[in-house]
Structure formats: structure tokens, C-alpha cells
Amino acid sequence: MNFRLELDKSDIFQTVRKSAEALGLETYVIGGFVRDMILKRPSKDIDFVCVGSGIKLAKEVAKNSERNTNVTVFKNFGTAMLKIGDWELEFVGARKESYQRNSRKPIVENGTLQDDQNRRDFTINALAISLNKENYGEVIDPFDGLKHLKSKIIKTPLDPDITFSDDPLRIMRAIRFSAQLNFDIEPITFDAIIKNVERLKIVSKERITDELNKIILSRQPSYGFKLLFHSGVLKEIFPEMVALHGVETIDKKSHKDNFYHTLQVLDNVAAVSNDLWLRWAAILHDIAKPPTKRFNKKVGWTFHGHEDKGARMVPGIFRKLKLPMNEHMKFVQKLVLLHLRPIALVNEHITDSAVRRLVFDAGDALESLMILCRADITSKNDKKVTRYLQNFDKVERKILEVEEKDQIRNFQPIITGKIIMETFDIKPSKVIGEIKDEIKEAILDGKITNTLEDAYPFMLECARKKGLKPIEQDSRT
């Protein structure tokens, strides 16, 4: 197979080719770009390997490029990177690697193209295309990578047991590529993953979570999670999710398998949103069901309070997985806490007060919450799902109606702490917060409007019950 015509479409390959010839360096395009070009997947990252100094080649390419570009050199790794327009090019000298048992950082030596292909993680990532004069455009495929692309197989070039033991992050990468490309992992390779799961202990949490997030962002993330589960990887990296698995039966009453339910919810969210943190909310929405599970002879299985306990579990899970402890974590926590609220509205007469409170509590996360709640409706009974979704349509219409009328989302009561302190000549204290809360609750219940005309007299009445008197009658009353 020859890709001369594809290479000729971009002046980048011509610049790299001429630069390599000027330096007398045997040079190849290698890895993910080659794989994606054959699969017709978009890619803007190109890896080049040369037999010699990749840093020298990168500097020569920058010099010969018609566009201004700076070379970023990583001396410790013997690599260099530069950007040309939207393209990101990385250059490395061909090398061979060996590993020590307690580290995934290799001992690196200069090597040949064959050595470099031997060190690649999977056969589909070991494909190289020559930029050399004598075989320009030709694919160098020593491990049947082309065949595996066609048959949709993830397989290691060398012994998978050694491959995963040497660098156990490749375990996560195998499952990630399988999820992203919808490929199968070859049986012997999968067996080696199972055998080497405990080796993941030497990989940093950040690197593992980076791969996990890529699995979560795949088109159908449940596929990747099933591979993580059946290989034992999920138990190693995220045991709280594994705890959702299984069905218990007492007195012929069973609960659903919350692990597979969670995967269905995740896929449902993935079908309509690429938001990583909304997908994390789908993963964690029922995370506290195992510790809150109880059996009652009258009603069967219950999971009372799992939304509250789940929200309290979110920071610990984020911290353990080295996920960001910022607004993203708070967003996920909020959705986990609120995910039952819209569903509860479906089952009762929808009052303005209930809707107003939901809109206020959800704030800017309201649309995401409704996506999660729709995704959470899973059943083998299609009629039941349709009925619930139709009820959700009513809830959403009511939300729009109340929001348009009251503008309640993220509202702030018109009575501030400053007004309370000035009216009663008091210093900051607990009673100010209590009065503000009473005013907020009254507004949300629809007893008063969020106007000075309604809220100021209500404040005076609240304060009177607490023994406070205004320093003087205010014209606002």
C-alpha cells in the first residue's frame, strides 16, 4: 500500500521530506496520524521518527517552513515539537527501550525504525509511512497493523504480557482505543490485561484518569466501561462504581442492577451532550445506592437519601481520581444532589412553588439537570419510558412558564444584609441570616414577590417576632 498521493496533498510532508534529505536522515510518519488517515478520521497531530536526531530535524523543518514557527525542545526525552498553522508536529529519533520492574519510565537507547516500531503499544499504532526517496509513501507494517485495522482488532506488536507489565498505562490505552474506535481487544491481549491489572499501581492517578476521561468522552462510553469492568481494571481504579454491580433478591423482590443502569444513563447523556462533567454526573448519580440500600417487606428495596449521600461522596471521589476540585466538581455534586427532584415533580401535581424551588436550586445547571433526568428514565418497558418522557415535557413547559414569569433562576432577595443592619441598627450576626432565609423562603413559596413593596414589610414582621425594632419608621413602608 502506498500513500504518495495523500502525502503530496500537504506541503508539510514536502517540507519535512526535503529537510530530512538535507540532513541525510531516514525519516517516517508514524503512529496515530497514519492510523487515522487510513481510517479517514480527522487528525491534526503528526509524529515523525527519524534514524538520528529528531531535534535537529525539527529545527531544520522550522528553518525551511514558509510560516514563522518556534521549536519546543524536550531534551530529557530527545523530542521536539513545532506548530505550523493548525498542525502540531512532533519529532523523535528512533529508539529502543527497556524497563525496570518498579517503573514505567524506560531506559532509552538510539535504535532503528524496527526498534522504534517494536516499542509501540499496538500494531495499529506501529504503522509507518516512508518519506525517503527510494520508497516514498510506502507503508512499513511489520506487525499486520493494516490487517488489524480492517478487522477492527487491538493487539500488541510483541508479547502482550511484557508490553503491559513494562508500561501498564497501555492497559488503559488499549481500552480507550477500543472504546474510541469501536474495536475488539484480541483475546490473548485481553488476557494479558487481566493478568497485569495490579501493575496499574505504578501509574500516576493523573495519567489513569486522563485515559478514563477519554473513554468517558467516546461515542458510546458504556463499551469502554464494560471492558474496564470485565478486565478487573475498574475495581482497581474506581471500586465505588463496581459496588453498583449485582442484583439482590429477597422474598422474590429484586432491585435493578445499578451498574448497568448507570451505563445506560451514561450512554443516554452521551447521545445528546459532549459535556465531560455532565457525563461524570451520569456516572455518579446513583453512586451512593450500595451504602443506602435497605429491604422493607412492604415496599421492597429502597435507597432513601442516596442523592444526598452521593453528593457528599463526590468530593472524595474527585480527590482520589485527581479530578479538578473546582466548579466542575461542584457542578457534578449539584446534579447528583438534585437528580431526583424533577422526577418527583412528574409524580405529583406540579405547583409553582415546587418548580420555583427547583429552578432556584439548580441555577445555571438547570438544562444539564433536565438532560440527566431524562437520561435516567430507563426501562425495558418502552410504553413506561414514553409515558415518563411525556410527563417530563409537562414539567419542562411548567419550568419555562414559571421562569419567564418570576425570573427566579439565581435570584437574590431584594432585602440585603445591609438593609437589615441599617434598619435595626445591628451588627453582623446570626439573626440577619435567619431573616434573609425567611424572606427567601417566602418568595420561593409565592407568599410575597421579590419587590421592596412586599419584602420590606415582611422583613419588619420577621424581625418583630425576634424582638427587633426598627430605629425609625422608614418611608419604604
Automatic annotation (TrEMBL):
Entries under Gene3D superfamilies matching the protein: 1.10.246.80, Beta Polymerase, domain 2, cca-adding enzyme, domain 2
Stored InterPro entries: CCA-adding_enz_C, HD/PDEase_dom, HD_domain, NT_sf, PolA_pol_head_dom, PolyA_RNA-bd, tRNA_CCA-adding_enzyme
Keywords linked to the UniProt accession: ATP-binding, Magnesium, Metal-binding, Nucleotide-binding, Nucleotidyltransferase, RNA repair, RNA-binding, Transferase, tRNA processing
Extent of the signal sequence: none
ATP-binding found in the keyword field: yes
SMART domains listed in its UniProt record: HDc (SM00471)
Pfam families reported for this sequence: HD (PF01966), PolyA_pol (PF01743), PolyA_pol_RNAbd (PF12627), tRNA_NucTran2_2 (PF13735)
Domain HD/PDEase: 254-378
Domain of life of the organism encoding this protein: Bacteria
Cofactors demanded by this protein: Mg(2+)
Family: Belongs to the tRNA nucleotidyltransferase/poly(A) polymerase family.
Name recorded for this polypeptide: HD domain-containing protein
Upper taxonomic lineage: Bacteria, Pseudomonadati, Bacteroidota, Cytophagia, Cytophagales
